[in-house]
Amino acid sequence: MGKEIFNTMTSLPLRSAPTFPQRQSNERPRNPEALHIIVVSVRATFVFLLCVSSYLAGSIFGHHSSLDSYYSIDVDGRRRPPPGTSSGVILSLNGKASDVSKKRSRDDVGCNNMTDERRIDFHVRRELERHVHRMENAESSSRRRRFPSSSMGKSFNGVIRVKKDDINDLLDFGNPASRGGGTPEEDALVFYQREGAFPCSDVLLRHAVEYDDGMGIPLTDSETATENCDSLNVIFTGNPGQTRQCTAIVPNFESYHVQRWMKVDTVRTTPIKPELPLVPVSRGYGAGRGGTAGRGHFYSPPSPSDGKLSPVKRHWSRLLPFFQNIDSILEDLSAILKRIARNNAVVVLTCNMGQSALLVNFACSARRRGFDLGNILVFPSDVETKELAEGLGLTTYYDVKNMDILPKGEARRYGAMMYAKVLCVLYPLLLGYDVLFQDVDVVWLTPDRDPLQFFQDESSKLSRFDVIFQHDGANSIRYAPYSANSGFYYARANKKTQYLFTSLLYHSDLIMTWDSHQQVLVQLLSEHSSLFGLNVKVLSRGYHYHRKHPFMMKFVKGETESYIFHMSWTKNKNDKVFFLRQLGEWYVTDKCIDKPMAKISGIGSSSRNEALLLPCCATEPIFSCHYRDKPSKLPCKSSASIDPSGRSFW
C-alpha cells in the first residue's frame, strides 16, 4: 500500500462562463394600456424629431414629408419599405403569430394617400412588432425549461455538470473511483429537485440550470454546484458486461437501493435474451456473455432441511459456543488488551499451522527492521501456532472454545478460517479498542512509517472514517461498490463498527455459502453505510504487485513512500513465499518453515519468549529468483515465467 495521497484535480473556474446572452429584464409589454402609452410616447417623439429635421432642411411645407425618404417608390407609384424588413414570422402585439407579408399587404392599402400622422403610426407599430418579435425569440430560447414543470416539477427542476474527479475530491465518498479526466466518464450530473437548491452565487449559471439555452448542460465546479444542497443522494453506476443498459429514475417514495431488471430467464439462469421481457434479478446476476453470464453471484444459503452439512446448520453449531462463552472470553481479553494496547488500539492477526511460515516472516522482518511488536495480538487457531507466535515474542490469545472446531493445516476451504477472522476483530471492538487487522502475508517496511500511526493521525482526512481498507483491485460485481481488501483494514471502535462485525458474525452462513469472507463483508459495508451512516474508506493502493509494473519497479528501487507490502492476489502459500523471496522480503530460515516449535533444531524443548528469534530470523533478507515475469529486487531474467506469455519484469 502506498502512502495515501489526496490528489486535487486542475482547478475549475469558481463560476461558469455565461451560457446565454445577458438580458435586462424578463418583463414583456403585454398590457394593452401600457402598450398604448408606449405607442403614444414613441409617436410624439417621432413627430417632434420629424418636424425639427424637416424644418432644418427647409422642407416643412414641401410636397413630401421626411418619412417619404424611408420608402422607395414602385413602378406603380406605391411606396414599399426597404429590403430586409419583410421576412419571417413574428408575434403580434396581442401575442399571436402573424405572417409579416400578409400584415403588410393589409396595412399598405392606400399608403399613397396616408397622412404623415398615419405613416408615423404605421412605422411605429411596425418597429414595435419587430422589437417584440426579437424579444419573443430570445424568450423562447432562454425560457424553455429543461424539465416540464407540469409533469416533473416535484422531482426534476434543473441539472448541471461537474467533473467526476472534482466531486470525488471535494466529498470523498470513500469507495475507490477511477480517474475521469480525459475519459468518456469525465463528467457527473447533479439534478436539482427544488429551485431553492440551485446555485445562487452566479445568476447566469442559475438560469442555465433551469432553462435550455441551446448550449448544452452547464458545467461548473462541485462546490458551486452543491452550495445550496441541504442533502445529496449519490448514485454510482457502471455497465457490467457492457450490455445495452438503461437507467430509470422514477419519482416515488424514497429508496436507497437500486433495482436490477434484465431480459433473462431466471429459472434456467440464462444469459441475456433480447426477446424476453425485463424481469427483476439479483444485483449479482452476470450480465455479460462470458463465463459469468447467467450466473448469480449472490444466492441464499441452502435450506437447513438439507441436512447437517447445510451452511445454515453449521453456522448455528458455530454460534452456540460463541454465545455460551462470550462473557468469559471478553473478561480474559480485557486484561490482555489493557496491557498491550497503545493509544487505545491493537494490531490483530489470526493464523493456523498451515500459514505459520508467513506469520514467522512477518515477525522476523519487523524485528530486523526495528519495529516494536508489543501491541500485536495473535489469535492462533491451534496450539502449534500459539507456541510459534509466543516463541517469536508475540502476545497470543487462544480461544479454545471457538477455535478448536476449525481445521488445521492450510485450510482446504477458504471459508473455514474466515470464521476466526471475524471473531478476532469483533472481540477488541466490543471492549472499546480500535483494531488494525492484517493477514500474515503482510510486511511492514520502515519504523518511521508505522501503519498504526498512519491511521491514528487525527489531522488526516482519514480521521472521519469508521473503517479504512486497502484496495483489493477486484472490480467485479461480487465486490462492488467498495472492492475492500479484508486482509488489511483499520476499524475505529464505535457503535457502528461493533454492529458491523456483529452482523458479519451473524452472516457466517453466507461466508460458508459464498466461500468468501470478503464478499460478505463488502455487502455489509454497503448496507451499513446506507442504513446506519457507517463511513467507509478504501485506499487507492493494495493490488499493485501483479498489475502495476511501473509502481513495482519504483518499489523495488526504494523510490516509494509505502508503509506496508501485502502479498495479496496470490494463489497459494508456496507462491507467496517465492514472490517474497525474490522481492527481498523473506527473513525465515529454511529450518523454521512449516515446522512446529518442538521440531525446530537449536532450541530443544525451550518455550521461553523470543526463543525462535535467533534460529529462525535471518539478519538479512534471503533472496532467490523464481519467476522472471514477477517483480524482483534483482533481475531474474533466466528464470521461467509463471504466467502464460509473461514478459520479464526487468
Automatic annotation (TrEMBL):
<dbReference type="Pfam" id="PF03407">
    <property type="entry name" value="Nucleotid_trans"/>
</dbReference>
<feature type="domain" description="Nucleotide-diphospho-sugar transferase">
    <location>
        <begin position="375"/>
        <end position="580"/>
    </location>
</feature>
<feature type="compositionally biased region" description="Polar residues">
    <location>
        <begin position="7"/>
        <end position="24"/>
    </location>
</feature>
<dbReference type="InterPro" id="IPR005069">
    <property type="entry name" value="Nucl-diP-sugar_transferase"/>
</dbReference>
<feature type="region of interest" description="Disordered">
    <location>
        <begin position="631"/>
        <end position="650"/>
    </location>
</feature>
<feature type="region of interest" description="Disordered">
    <location>
        <begin position="1"/>
        <end position="29"/>
    </location>
</feature>
<dbReference type="InterPro" id="IPR052636">
    <property type="entry name" value="UDP-D-xylose:L-fucose_XylT"/>
</dbReference>
<protein>
    <recommendedName>
        <fullName>Nucleotide-diphospho-sugar transferase domain-containing protein</fullName>
    </recommendedName>
</protein>
